[in-house]
Every structure is written in C-alpha cells, then in structure tokens.
Amino acid sequence: MVRMNNEILMEFIEAIFEECGDSLVLKGALALNMLFAENSNDINHRFSEDFDSYLLRMKMKFSELEAKVQVVLDKLDLSSKVRAVTERHPKNHSSGRIVLYYGMEESDGKEIFFSLDIDVDNCEHTYEIELPSGRLISCASIECICADKIDAISKAKLFFRVKDIYDIYLISIIYKPGYRDIKQIYDGVYRSERDKERIENKLSFKEFRDAGLKSSEPYLELADSYDKLTDIRNPSKKPAFDDVYARVRAFLKPFMTEHLSASNAIWSVEGMDWIADNSDLFGKPKSAVKGITSFL
Questions:
Q1: Which of 27, 43, 222, 263 is the most exposed place for a label (fewest CB within 10 A)?
Q2: What whole-number distance in Å separates Cα of residue 105 and Cα of residue 230?
Q3: If you average pLDDT over residues 107-125, what whole number do you get?
Q4: Is the pTM of this model over 0.85?
Q5: 129 and 136 in contact (C-beta within 8 Å)?
C-alpha cells in the first residue's frame, strides 16, 4: 500500500464528513490517533490508511455513501487517477469496504490508495473531534474502541490481530476508562446471537490465554507478528513484546474472567490493574485539539 501523505488524508476526511455530516462516526486507528493527539505528541502510535467508520443505519445507506465517495474524488481532483471498488461483507451486505485503487482500469493493478471499512450500525458512544479547519466530526469513544478491539482479540487467528493488541497497550498507558462502560458496549454489541455459540464453547480469548506460555504456538506466532509490526511512528522504540502482552493481559483480565461483572472500576495506568471507583465519570476524553495533522 502506498502511504498517503497527511495533507491528502486530512483533505479526504474533511471532504467526506462535509458530504456525509453526522451520518459517519470515525473509529479505528485514525480515531485513536486523534484521541492520542490531545494527550501527547510522543505516543508511538500506528499509522493507518484504513478509514474505519460507522455509517449510522437510520441516516444513510451504504449505496448513498458510495455516491458520496465519488463526489469527494471529483472534488479533490482524483477521479481521473483513482477508481473506487466496493467489496460488500459476505454475511452482512449492508456493510462493506470501499477500496480506492490507483489507475482507472483493473489491469492497472491492485496498488491501494486508500480504503474505507464501513459498519452500518448505530453508535451511541461518541464525542466530537475538532479538525484543523475547525470542522467538528463524530468519533467513537475510547470505551467503544476498546470494546471493538477486545472482541477482535478474543477470536481465533490472533496473530492477525497484533495491531489491536498494540492499540490496547497504548490505550492502557494513557487512559483510565471505566470497566462497566466498556463491558456494557461489549455485551450489547458483540454478545449477540451470532456469537452465542463461540461464547458457550468457551472459545473466547483461548489463543490470547495460550499465548501466556512462551513455548506455545500462539505465543510464537504472535511474537513473530509483533516483530513484523513496523507501521508505527518509531519502530526502533517499539516496546518489548513480553511487556506489551503482560500489560494487555492485565487490562483484559476482567473481560476474560468477568470477575468484575457487577463492579464499578476504572483502569489504573500506574498500577496496571482495575480499581474500585464510586464515580460515574470514567475515562472520557475531554475536548480534542487542533493540529492533529502531524499526528496521523
């Protein structure tokens, strides 16, 4: 994949939100990078050219978004250089991926310019981020992003999800989210009927648990994937895999064991543990800041 420069990326984000308004909610690595920007410019975050978003079900259809993407390409003078190809989700045709390829013909190859991974759903856990232009866009909350990544880590073929493990690691050294808030989203969104069999068979987190044994196949596969993770800000300062795994395991412990299911607890950045709290004010990000372009 060709890395987009920050200027083009920001122009695309500005333009697509101008067209879609509050029908889109940003999530994934781009959302995290914007959230990290309000805390520190020293976070060794991941780069991503995947535009992960929720398309709010009641406000816009996927087919309407496809048309909006073409409008944006025209507006940015890219329609003669880039072609948009839609890949619908095999089990949920209302969701999917819009991949922007260099070249106007399929024979031009599969060099990806940009991709939009879209979930058509409702997202109630949002807050606003201010872009450098002053435009406000909706972004999934830290709790919502945590629930999304925890679900990914809980599944099989964990070596494919090393980026989610790394993102949880970064979240755990910066934020103090609320366990109850994350769990309510996790249970409400991911513990649906389609996941019931996986949960009842106790397959959740199996590979992540097994990776705790250094001689195990999951550990070796995951460590190898982590060694190959280079799309971060400063790969030479990437923390040791064992340190990342230990911290993420501590963060995920109550979700794997559910021993805090009725508790009100917050994550302790310093203590690397969940602690009791009597407040309903969890780790909500405050207001985002301008100048995020250099952080993406």
A1: 263
A2: 31
A3: 75
A4: no
A5: yes
